[in-house]
Design a protein that fits this description.
Belongs to the cytochrome P450 family. Its cofactor is heme. This is Cytochrome P450. The chain is an alpha+beta fold. The chain has a single domain, classed as Cytochrome P450 (Cytochrome p450), CATH 1.10.630. The strands form four sheets. The chain has a five-stranded mixed beta sheet. Strands 4-12-9 form a three-stranded antiparallel beta sheet. A two-stranded antiparallel ribbon has the order 6-7. β10 and β11 form a beta hairpin. α7 packs antiparallel against α11.
């Protein structure tokens, strides 16, 4: 089959009129109630190129994969990244995600070597070791909170691979601060505080400042320990140690504040997104006996009772497909935004200056034109011989172009290996019923997902 993107099911690519908005607020109330449903509504009822307004700010939603690909490729060329807001900057600082232009290029060049495939290979043993410890801690018939279990596990992996330390108390400090950040960023995005000056002291902002202060104290303490160890000749093999030794083209290292910002960014990329993906994957697998049976067959054939290693990542295509399908249905990063530079176009059409361009992983990855039965969990759609060809840029959970997520490879390898380690011993049976996503820093379940662990006989 071809990968052309033809209108279907009432979706009309030629429609350009957008929804009417309220004075001053524009479409903010509808967006704030449910951003995910709002994007799908625009796509289905107005088309692939839909003008709308977030408060007084003109916006444009694009839904064609071709336009998404052009937008991703154009960031830092014909488009500029959007300021992600006060709350996001409080957490990420001026790291590689939030910086732009020459500053971004410098930081990307410094950070990228630490997450290349060769380095990810060196972290695989830690991923497997931590996952095996979790598997050994479970008992048959045990009741667990899936998200809590996956969060603890990926925190442990992130702390060990990023900081090279075991921290009984530090994980809780970082996790508590990140939980506050999740809520604060989501609340700012969905509410009127996004338009308030940074000096307005709302209750949510006060909570976030306190949480970030705790986070900064812990991160700076770990950085100081690494610098002291390096000065004493005790080298460590972790991400932070690599950042400490990185030098730009002028021979300059990352400053103390830059180290903090990149450490937090890598922590979020290596923990927050992976724990969310694994949480959704267990819930989806629990409702699909067919997928679970295929997973068991692959793990038995490839692993034959042993623990996986890095090289097994390539030998577990169906396990990879489960992760990819989970990322399709519940992408942790659920939107990208950019603003046009003078003369910018998408699909040959000019984009008005001052317009914020939006593309939503949620709506594009659940578009029936890109994925038949878009709301169904079907890992087999990722098989090389699958009958339906997936259009380029119809799946972009890690973004794309020059600003694609640097930790994408790390996250995929981690999710596949962790899933393999746990699934070879256990079935995680979640309680049936819909779990709606909550839009914050990442796309989290809106409620706990209780489950029962059963031995995988």
């Amino acid at each position: 089959m071809t990968s052309t993107h033809a209108p279907a099911n009432g979706i009309h690519a030629s429609v350009t009129a957008g929804p009417r908005g309220l004075p001053l607020l524009g479409n903010l109330p509808a967006f704030a109630r449910d951003p995910l449903a709002f994007f799908c509504h625009l796509r289905d009822d107005y088309g692939d190129w839909v003008p709308w307004s977030l408060g007084p700010k003109p916006s444009l939603l694009v839904s064609r994969p071709e336009d998404v690909g052009e937008l991703l490729a154009g960031v830092e060329v014909t488009f500029s990244p959007v300021d992600l807001g006060w709350a996001m900057h409080q957490v990420l600082g001026e790291g590689v995600v939030t910086s732009t232009g020459a500053d971004w290029r410098r930081k990307r060049a410094l950070v990228q070597p630490s997450v290349r495939p060769r380095q990810v290979r060196s972290y695989a043993a830690t991923m497997v070791e931590c996952a095996d410890a979790t598997a050994s801690s479970w008992t048959d018939g045990q009741a667990v909170d899936v998200q809590q279990e996956m969060t603890r596990l990926t925190q442990r992996i992130a702390v060990r691979t990023l900081f090279g330390v075991e921290t009984a108390g530090r994980e809780e400090v970082v996790a508590g601060a990140m939980a506050v950040a999740q809520e604060a960023i989501g609340a700012e995005l969905r509410g009127v505080t996004v338009f308030l000056p940074s000096w307005v002291p709302t209750p949510g902002r006060r909570r976030l400042r306190a949480a970030v202060a705790r986070l900064d104290e812990e991160i700076h303490r770990i950085i100081d320990e690494h610098q002291a160890a390096s000065a004493a000749g005790r080298e460590r093999d972790d991400l932070l140690s690599r950042l400490l030794t990185a030098r730009d083209e002028h021979g300059a290292p990352l400053s103390q504040q830059e180290l903090r910002d990149e450490a937090v960014t890598l922590y979020i990329g290596g923990h927050e997104t992976t724990s969310t993906t694994l949480t959704w994957a267990w819930h989806l697998l629990s409702g699909s006996p067919e997928a679970r049976a295929r997973l068991d067959a692959e793990l038995t054939e490839v692993l034959d009772g042993r623990l996986p290693g890095f090289d097994d990542y390539a030998r577990l295509p169906f396990t990879q497909a489960i992760v990819k399908e989970s990322l399709r249905l519940y992408p942790p990063i659920w939107l990208i935004t950019a603003v046009p530079r003078p003369g910018a176009t998408l699909g040959g059409r000019p984009v008005p200056e001052g317009t914020t361009v939006w593309a939503s992983q949620w709506s594009v990855q659940r578009d029936p034109r890109n994925f038949p039965q878009p709301d169904a969990f079907r890992p087999e759609r990722w098989a090389p011989d699958a009958p339906d060809v997936i259009p380029d840029h119809a799946w972009f959970p890690f973004g794309g172009g020059q600003r694609t997520c640097l930790g994408a490879r790390f996250a995929l390898v981690e999710a596949v290996l962790v899933l393999a380690v746990l699934a070879r011993k256990w079935r995680v049976e979640t309680e049936p019923g819909e779990v709606k996503p909550h839009t914050g820093l990442t796309l989290q379940p809106s409620r706990p997902i209780p489950a029962t662990v059963r031995g995988n006989a």
